Amino acid sequence: MMKIFAASLLSIVLLAGVAHAEDRLIIVNGMAEKGLDPNMVNLGIEVWSKASTAKQAQQLAANQFKQIKKTFDEYKIKKEDIQTDNYSLNPEYEYDQKLRQNKMTGFRVSQAMTVTLRKVEDAGNFLDSLVSEKKSTDSGTSVNSISWDSDKRAQVETAALGDAVRSAKAKAEEIAKAAGVKVKGVARISHSTGRVGPQPVFRNYAMKAMDAAESAPTEVSAGQIKVRVEVTAEYEIN
Hints:
This protein has 238 residues and is α+β, with helices and mostly antiparallel strands. The protein is built from five helices and seven strands; from the N terminus they run αββαββαβαβαβ.
């Protein structure tokens, strides 16, 4: 019985020592931010159409896609840089006041896709090329979003990560010095990355430029991509 009690007491002492050791930590955050120029632009594009029958709506959408496909070919956009995100074919309704119920008026087709343009200097002209000069209420192309990116972003994130870790270490050493202790080593460290800064978004672009021939050329500003890395580090102290 005494042996069991002694073993239990020893376990409690050891656990208390571990807990006490874990308490001797300095926990700090480190942050670094770097900017880089974008070398690609991602556009959210929607091809839409509506007609009295589903087949007619599909045909109109197919014809509209053929038109923008010519623009894709003109700007040498590769197949792997065109991705269909969603395709829908749905009936459309309007409320009949006399009958007090919804009445089907036809069908609408919508094909949403993401297109990557790898020449950012062509972004404005590319947007203009997507808009047809022919006015139509049955089909069209809309640009719903635009965002900038770079294929060098991973390299920049890695460089920023090193800066963030050094920042955290400097903070820990300064705190330890002020407290009269010394940093022994890193007990735990984690990190997160993200992008900061405004992301330009275009809504209903086709509605604002129904007649591309009479409108001024579109200008878009890419600015810089800001990459931010944050680390949380726990340093053991003596």
